[in-house]
């Protein structure tokens, strides 16, 4: 292969083109850096020196001088909010909104960010005002979601229903379960004020949004009981099994109390034992154990707990077994058995928790809405120890 002499000219030519392109880029960068105000560099220097108050004043000065720095302020505002410096975040977004030369889009974004600042600070009335103003803007959907959160915190359930319905009608997602829960909250308020008819009317609306809502069915039974219709309450609570077998544990005590009040305790015990055979549960076992103990004595209660402990070996079940054994133990062995029960009971109580499947928050009692993350229906109706045993099986 012969080497062509003209290649000696091509190589320097491409090298020269590369050098020229580099010079052009460098000059462009230098000209851009010169166009930035000195306050920008002073602000960066103040941030590096951990002087955020001074930095924010300098960046505010930049905003007054240069309308093209809004994105810088949004970034700073979010940074301050994430760090918990809500006051500084509010100052950033308020100063942006005070400018008369902002476009509608930038002003809307600044108001939305300001609403988020107020929301995180717990200033719900101010946050609500910001989000309400954003309804006709591109931030309308996000603002309605924030309003739903605000109304839940304030327990303004009717307003939460309206906001959630508006979101659903706008095609922003499905909110049937949340709306049904909001109606359940209204029904509970009605029951607190001894107004079962209002509660029943509200619960019908809850079921119209979510036919499988277990809480609504339980509350219908509660409302019927307040009206004096115990048989109707029992029939309603029995329907919980058709919706969710594990949730039967939540109505076990109601069922047993109802059957006692109509003088059919044996029917109640048999029902709870049938439920135990279908869906083992510590809460269900505790109610059945006390009922069997009352009707049939400690020997039968002992056998019930022993059978359940073999099926689902848990410390909570062992605690119940020791309780039954302690009742008919001879006097000379009672102290030792009592000591063992106290030790087991102490550890068992630590495991007697419900856990949110969304954030992991644990609680002694069952919640329809997680106190930690605010998610609805995120608690399984079983204790954490039961779930661990089931997962290992």
How would you portray this structure in words?
By secondary structure, the chain is an all-alpha fold. Among the domains are: 107 residues, Serine Threonine Protein Phosphatase 5, Tetratricopeptide repeat (Alpha Horseshoe); 70 residues, Serine Threonine Protein Phosphatase 5, Tetratricopeptide repeat (Alpha Horseshoe), CATH 1.25.40; 40 residues, no CATH class. 74% of the residues lie in helices and 1% in strands. It has 21 helices and 2 strands. It has a two-stranded antiparallel ribbon with strand order 1-2. α11 packs antiparallel against α12. 35% of the residues are buried. About 4% of the residues have low confidence.
Rg, nearest Å: 33 Å
Name of the CATH first level of the domain at 66-172: Mainly Alpha
Return the average pLDDT rounded to an integer.
81
The separation of the N and C termini measures 75 Å
Considering DSSP H and I runs of 4 or more, what fraction of the residues is helical? over 70%
Low-confidence stretches: 22-35
Any idea what the CATH architecture of the domain at 66-172 is?
Alpha Horseshoe
Q: Which class best fits the helix and strand makeup?
A: mainly alpha
Strand content: under 5%
Please name the defining characteristics of this protein.
mainly alpha, 393 residues, elongated, single chain, 74% helix, Serine Threonine Protein Phosphatase 5, Tetratricopeptide repeat, two-stranded antiparallel ribbon
Question: Secondary-structure blueprint of this entry?
Answer:
Blueprint: H1 7-35, H2 38-48, H3 52-65, H4 70-83, H5 86-97, H6 104-121, H7 124-133, H8 140-153, H9 157-169, H10 176-192, H11 196-209, H12 214-226, H13 230-238, H14 240-243, H15 248-261, H16 265-278, H17 282-296, H18 298-311, H19 315-327, H20 331-351, E1 354-355, E2 362-363, H21 384-392
């Amino acid at each position: 292969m012969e080497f062509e002499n003209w290649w000696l000219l091509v190589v320097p030519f491409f090298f020269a083109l590369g050098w020229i392109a580099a010079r052009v880029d460098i000059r462009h960068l230098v000209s851009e850096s010169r166009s930035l105000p000195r306050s920008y560099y002073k602000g960066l220097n103040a941030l590096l020196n951990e002087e955020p108050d001074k930095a924010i004043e300098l960046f505010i000065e930049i905003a007054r001088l240069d309308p093209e720095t809004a994105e810088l302020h949004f970034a700073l505002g979010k940074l301050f909010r994430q760090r918990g410096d809500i006051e500084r975040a509010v100052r950033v977004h308020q100063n942006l909104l005070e400018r008369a030369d902002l476009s509608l889009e930038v002003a809307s974004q600044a108001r939305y960010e300001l609403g988020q600042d107020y929301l995180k600070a717990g200033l719900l009335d101010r946050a609500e005002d910001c989000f309400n103003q954003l309804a006709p803007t591109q931030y309308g959907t996000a603002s309605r979601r924030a309003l739903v959160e605000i109304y839940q915190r304030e327990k303004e359930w009717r307003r939460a229903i309206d906001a959630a319905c508006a979101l659903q009608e706008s095609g922003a997602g499905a909110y049937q379960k949340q709306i049904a829960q909001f109606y359940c909250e209204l029904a509970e308020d009605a029951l607190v004020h001894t107004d079962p008819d209002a509660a029943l009317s509200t619960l019908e609306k809850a079921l119209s949004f979510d036919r499988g809502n277990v809480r609504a069915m339980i509350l219908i039974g509660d409302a019927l009981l307040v009206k004096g219709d115990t048989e109707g309450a029992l029939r309603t609570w029995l329907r919980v099994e058709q919706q969710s077998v594990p949730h039967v544990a939540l109505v076990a005590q109601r069922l047993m109390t109802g059957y006692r009040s109509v003088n059919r305790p044996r029917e109640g015990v048999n029902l709870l034992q049938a439920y135990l055979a279908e869906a083992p549960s510590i809460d269900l076992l505790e109610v059945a154990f006390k009922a069997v103990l009352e009707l049939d004595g400690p020997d039968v209660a002992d056998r019930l707990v022993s059978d359940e402990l073999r099926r689902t070996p848990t410390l909570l079940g062992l605690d119940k077994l020791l309780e039954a054994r302690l009742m008919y133990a001879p006097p000379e062995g009672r102290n030792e058995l009592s000591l063992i029960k106290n030790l087991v009971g102490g550890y068992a109580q630590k495991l007697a928790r419900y856990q949110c499947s969304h954030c992991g928050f644990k609680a002694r009692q069952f919640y329809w809405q997680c106190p930690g993350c605010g998610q609805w229906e995120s608690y399984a109706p079983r204790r954490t120890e039961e779930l661990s045993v089931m997962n290992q099986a």
